[in-house]
Amino acid sequence: MTDSATRVAIYGPGAMGLHITRLLYERGVPIVAAITRPGSDKVGKDLGTLAGLPPLGVPVRCDAEETLAETAPDAVAVAVDTYLNQAMYDIYATIVRAGANVLTLAEEMLYPFPTSGARARRLDELAKRHGVTVTGTGHQDGYWVGLVSVLAGSAQTLHTVEGELSWNVDDFGPAVARQQHVDSTVAEFGEWLAGAARKPTFGRTALHALAAAIGLTPGRPETRTTPFVAARTIPCAALGKDIAQGRLLGYTDTDILHTEEGVDLVISSTGKVYEAGEADFNEWRATGRPTLRLRNDRVMTRDTTCTTLINRIPDVVRAEPGLVTVDRLPQLRYQASLGKASPGRASAG
Amino acid sequence: MTDSATRVAIYGPGAMGLHITRLLYERGVPIVAAITRPGSDKVGKDLGTLAGLPPLGVPVRCDAEETLAETAPDAVAVAVDTYLNQAMYDIYATIVRAGANVLTLAEEMLYPFPTSGARARRLDELAKRHGVTVTGTGHQDGYWVGLVSVLAGSAQTLHTVEGELSWNVDDFGPAVARQQHVDSTVAEFGEWLAGAARKPTFGRTALHALAAAIGLTPGRPETRTTPFVAARTIPCAALGKDIAQGRLLGYTDTDILHTEEGVDLVISSTGKVYEAGEADFNEWRATGRPTLRLRNDRVMTRDTTCTTLINRIPDVVRAEPGLVTVDRLPQLRYQASLGKASPGRASAG
Questions:
Q1: Which residue in the set B289, B294, B333 is minimally distant from A214, CB to CB?
Q2: Interface test with B, best of A150, A158, A263 (most B CBs within 10 A)
Q3: Can you name the residues that pair with B167 across neighbouring β-strands?
Q4: N or C terminus: which one in chain A shows less Cβ crowding within 10 Å?
């Protein structure tokens, strides 16, 4: 392979996968393959056309093994599902066995060891055997982990580190809207919440990543969840319908991770359908001495999720093999030369 | 040495050195020596007493070589002067030759290669020969470099990265107040500014560190400087006098560092005597796509300068030998176990 630029494949050409496609195309990163599930009506269509770009000569395929073997990407951007369930494990394992690095937006993959430990360890071993790296990244990598760790680096004493943020369900497509229980009734939501089916929250995973980044030893996690109810009828673009007054626009998860060092990490995350005029924010406060404050206003979460993954490509390609969480990567930064030069280890892939 | 905690010495028991002393004492870090210049009226006094603490059994001494040889600190916190002039080089070299790591608040030392290249390279070689690390850190490490690099890590395109911040001269003692031309007339200030004596600004140094952290290639630097004039009489604690209306409270430096990648880095830093009710802030905006924003309100710059240095101790003790700038250290973080356990390489010191 004489071409020195990192060659990327898209796994999951949904809302996020197509946004990553557009951003990679703009930055001149070669996109060599696109993979979806068998039976998808996207199979056979050109990835560029689906993304609203000129045709890229990259047909969406559903034969993952063959596609990866034929196209030999250095890195695969995965935007399929949140949790490290068996189906997602199989997707990551297929990519790893093909010798490609994995960057995934799956929230649990930011730090999957506490919640899906057996599969995470299996994936870590598999990636080590194949000499590639698997990393979960996205908005939370920079805004919930990196910035917060640096902020806390100016603390003399640290009692709590508390984040409050909100994101717009309409930026992330119907799968995420359903996960946020948009259009549920309060009763339905309460029933779901009381049941045993509650999965680990995004916030809990992020707090584990933050604890690792700060070097704190995680103890007991707690989650409190409250519905966010529509005060009037609000249109939901992700579901293509109006949400009636009294039904859910989404919900707030407040996660607390107690640590053995006595520092409580807290994240209160509201994912809901926005009304006109609302914008994402991300605000953190570290109590202790001195009190430390950080706020990001008008955050474009959908963009920053995808751009963070893209700026992480060189870090992941260069990282040691295994399931490497973001606390073990170099400090996040803008990659000015992406698409222009090799980040290193790629040429061996 | 069976004691595994990192043993620290203070070089320069002025306002900042004594603040570092108090913070280290609180965190249980052993303080083993204190050094000042010959002729200082602090010689012979107990460092703890000078810092408003119980006596520490650490007399301030002015025989640096002998003190370092007898007390064998792992790391020396230096808070003496801003620039890497010959006198400061001699201080760092004395510490390095004694086999101790150096953490300094000297602003130019955050990234001294562009402005004091010959001395910086000499110090780098000396530190490598002696197996120790010399690092300039402080508030700017986290707030002007680390946070900004992580923020820019969610950019798709980056045109400018612009910081605006202010700090209170009264937090830093008389040496800094004189550097900020507090109590000068506008004419005196204009004369100084027009003359050849202008030294590199803090901002220029910070922009070079930021460029290194983001991986950008620095080009031409520019500095514009404007006086900040008292609108009424303002008391200045650092100089112990009132600043009359029309005289300088300080000044604003606006630095621009053009980079070969086409990204302009800008920092506008106002250091002045504050009026009642004013507080430090630190605000950054990255233009390009998407626009990225970060703001720290009510920043306690005097504290964060010292706490950042303290949280950097384990990083510097563990770092490779040489003059290692903060862009080459791990991501800044809170060090919960400081004063409790060895960070590693110290035992070889």
A1: B333
A2: A150
A3: B271
A4: N
- The residues spanned by each domain of chain A are 8-139+303-348, 140-298
The CATH architecture annotation of domain A140-298 reads 2-Layer Sandwich (3.30)
CATH class of A8-139+303-348: alpha beta
Backbone angles phi, psi at A100, to 5 degrees: -110, 150
Q: Write down the mean pLDDT value for chain A.
A: 93
* The token pair that represents B234 in the structure block: 């303002």
Looking at beta carbons, which residues of chain B come within 8 Å of A139? 154
Q: Which residue has the tokens 């994936």?
A: A123
What is residue B347's predicted lDDT score, i.e. its pLDDT? 38
Task: Please tell me the CATH code under which domain B140-299 is placed.
Answer: 3.30.360
Q: What is the DSSP string of A4-23?
A: -SPPEEEE--SHHHHHHHHH
The shortest CB-CB distance from B261 to any of A154, A299, A336 is to: A336
Confidence of residue A2 (pLDDT cuts 50, 70, 90): very low
- B147, A282 Cβ separation under 8 angstroms: no
**Per-residue pLDDT at B176 exceeds 70:** yes
pLDDT of residue A347: 38
Closest chain A residue by Cα to residue B143: A151
Least Cα separation, residue B202 to chain A (angstroms): 19
Q: What six digits make up the tokens of B135? A: 């690092």
A–B interface: beta-carbon pairs under 8 A = 165
Q: Do A150 and B147 touch (CB under 8 A)?
A: yes
Chain B residues close to A158, C-beta within 8 Å? 334, 336
Task: Please report which confidence band the pLDDT of residue B344 belongs to, taking 50, 70 and 90 as the band edges.
Answer: very low
Question: Quick one: how far is CA B144 from the chain centroid?
Answer: 11
**What is the radius of gyration, based on Cα positions, of chain A?**
20
Structure-token pair, residue B61? 């001494």
Considering only CB atoms, which chain B residues are within 8 Å of A263?
334, 336
Structure tokens at B6: 């990192």
- Taking CA atoms, A41 is separated from A54, A77, A92, A94, in Å, by 20, 20, 22, 22
pLDDT of A151 strictly over 80 = yes
**A296, B294: Cβ pair inside 8 Å?**
yes
- Nearest chain A residue to B305 by CA: give it: A154
**Residue A242: strand pairing partners:** A235
Provide the ipTM. 0.90
CA distance A79 to A154: 35
SS3 label, residue B15: helix
Question: Tokens representing A237?
Answer: 């673009």
How many angstroms separate the first and last alpha carbons of chain B? Answer: 9
Q: Do A333 and B297 touch (CB under 8 A)?
A: no
Q: Cβ separation of A153 and B333 shorter than 8 Å?
A: yes
* Residues on chain A touching B139 (C-beta within 8 angstroms): 154
Closest B-chain CA to A333: B153
